Task: structure prediction
Amino acid sequence: MKNRLLLIWLMFVLAVVAKAQDTLTVMQYNLLYYGNYNSGFAECYETNNNTQYKDECIRTIVGYVKPDILTVCEFGASQQLLTDFMRHNLNINGADYWKSDNIINYASSNIINHIFYDSRKMELKRHVAIQTSPRDTDVYEMYMKTASLAQGDTIRLVCIVVHPKAGQGYEASRRALMQRAMDYVNQHYPTENVLIMGDFNIYGASESSYRLLTQTYPNTDICFVDPVYRIGGVGEWSNNSQFAKFHTQSTHGYSDECYASGGLDDRFDFILMADEIAFNFNHLHYLPDSYTAVGNDGNHFNMSVDQNYNAAVPPQVADALFDASDHLPVTMKIVVDTHLGVGDNELYALQASIAPNPATEEAAVSFHNPKAGRVTFEVFSLQGQRMLAETEVLGEGEQSHELSLGGLAKGFYILRIESEERAMATIKLLKQ
Result:
């Protein structure tokens, strides 16, 4: 009887936890001069980049991915085009919940960045455009509509959409744009859930703009994590078959004057996450292994995305990806934790601290262990690489563990502590 009651209670707890979480699918897509003909940069006309035909493809892709947030680059700078895009591609088949915002275009560019979102799950609090060249950088401050919250913006997600200048020789221009974006994060959202996404036009991890985003910004607490870091996606990816499954341009093996040619051989499109999301500091966390370049099965290096068999997506989706743009969209999933420390978190928190912090050679981790058993201590770089792992069997109650940090370089790290009962704590650690 006791076992049966325990099973019923466990099922109830799992049901409550499941209901207390939601998963957001985020998608970033360069739409290739959507609604913008004869742009001057590419020979894109109504005959080879027709908006109505592209809409058919976009509906197929959106229907397959089912995003909750869709950010885009290379969207024609027209409010009417924005309205029509939602009417033709998002608010269809009975859906009426997709929203967007008015265009801000300080740069007076003929193409802009923009966002579309499912208003059942989130709301847009603020849209700010940072004046950058050649296009504005757009900042969208969202808040989650969670059932456990009173009206307000307790759980926030900031999406920053960038589109720096393309081409070899423009590395300094790309870095300047990213510098403005990072400075804005440092000023307004230094400890917030932030995504930075867009068509970065970056050719490899050694480029200074990528390094600024992921490791060299002066305030080392401001750092973005590349979701593919742990699965071998970071390196000199341009025209390198080693990184074939991460390439996003070009979907075309040949050119029709508008679309870039050469097949999939460059990783230009990104969604990077602040370490707050990577390590679950503010009730949002990245779902491991959920990041993907839609339609890239790793077997189409220097090929069109729909050439021969594509193991990643159905044939109609591969065809739509070929016809809609010369970029592939990238997606990731973010789990929204709505417990907010009101009961459940008390059961699973270790109430840990570390001293000294900043530390030099050693630091003492103090915490309350809910039950005697094995406790694991792991130190990660802000890029997600595990740098240190130690395990000790400790008793119940107030405990302490000495960490040896002599082998770590100076900088910020994440310390994750987990007990045998799966009670956890996560702390930022500065090594000096």
Observations:
- The first helix runs from residue 2 to 19.
